[in-house]
Amino acid sequence: MPVARLEPGRSVNLGDIKEGDDVYFVCYITSNPSIYKLFWIHEGQELHHNVSAGVIMSNQSLVLQRVSRAASGQYSCVASNIQGDGHSNPQLLRVKYAPVCRHKQMVYLGASKYEQISLTCDLDAYPTPSHFRWTFNNSGESVDVPQEHIVAGGWRSTVTYAPNTDLDYGTLLCWGLNSVGVQRRPCVFHVFPADRPDPVHNCTVHVSMAAVNVVCMAGFDGGLPQTFILELYESSHGRLLANSTSTVPRFSVEGLEAGMALQGVVYSFNAKGRGEEVALSALTLTHLPEKHTAAVKPSPGPAPPTVGHRAHTTTVAVLVGVAAGALLVVVIVCVAVRVRGRAGVGAPAGSLAKTNPETSLKDSNLRQDENPDVIPQSASQQWY
């Protein structure tokens, strides 16, 4: 079975490796018969050759380029021959790096005036930070927080702070320092005015036989997210009927008894506390409102004609009769005229006067003289 031994490279000091440095290991192997495989392990996971990721495997060497804090951990090599696998001793790599924020880079915190708050700056670093620095910034100035207000230990630093005026609201920044260097990007804490929420207003209550609906207008939230509560009680015994929570001031409670007297309160709360209560009262209906059908009054008929109306109607009738008679007379006259005209045109042929032959001949000659260009043609004349 192969015997493997892992050593860092000759120029490598595993106790002083910082982010961005190069590291390499050498796996020394004694084997008979020869090995047919060599692979590398980092924190229990097999490594693979990946030049773009800075992991290079060559013969019996492992090269790690531009290491980051993620490269920290234990490394080992494993050599295999036909008799089995030989595991090397582990080597621990600890990559040093300057402090960074452990959690969110930016935090928002609401505070009321004269309220004492604690801001905690948690850092991640190797080695442990040796010094912390805090500054306060607002629109007008930037000042260092006095060291007597700073408590530091290990990777954590805490500042106690109380805004007394509007100018005390602003941004606090935290940096850490260790042997590698100063933290590049500070941890940021925005402190803004905040207080308990204002009460709701303009509440309306809608009731039915078995349900109550409450709708209110939200008050100022105090600068923080608020939640609304409805507590509903039976008036006679003070029994709690509902305790509803909502992100908006709207509530609906069902399953109530008809004719029940109710008392309730609506309020809101945020991280700074509970706002003032607004009292409500209601009475569920004992029965549903009845629907009434109104009697429909018939439309009035036409009014009887008055004396003046009758006289006006009679006058109109007389005028219409006269006009119709005149029109009839005109039609009769026209028909008679047309009948007489037709009788003259259609007289019998025997009643016509006899025609004088001489007169006819003269008329014929006269018509011929009126057309001198027409030459009479005899029956024997021919044209060639």
Keywords for this structure?
384 residues, 5-stranded mixed β-sheet, single chain, mainly beta, disordered C terminus, elongated, 5-stranded antiparallel β-sheet, 27 strands, 14% helix
Question: Can you describe what's shown?
Answer:
Residues 2-94 form the Ig-like domain. The chain crosses the membrane at residues 316-337. Residues 360-370 have a biased composition (Basic and acidic residues). It comes from Cherax quadricarinatus (Australian red claw crayfish). This is Ig-like domain-containing protein. The chain has 384 residues and is mainly beta. It has two helices and 27 strands. Strands 2-11-13-17-16 form a five-stranded mixed beta sheet, with no helix packed on it. Strands 4, 5, 8, 9 and 10 form a five-stranded antiparallel beta sheet that branches. Strands 12-19-18-14-15 form a five-stranded mixed beta sheet, with no helix packed on it. A hairpin with a 2-residue loop joins strand 6 and strand 7 (61-64). The longest helix is centred in the C-terminal third of the chain and has 39 residues, at 307-345. The model is unreliable at 293-297 and 344-384 (pLDDT under 50).
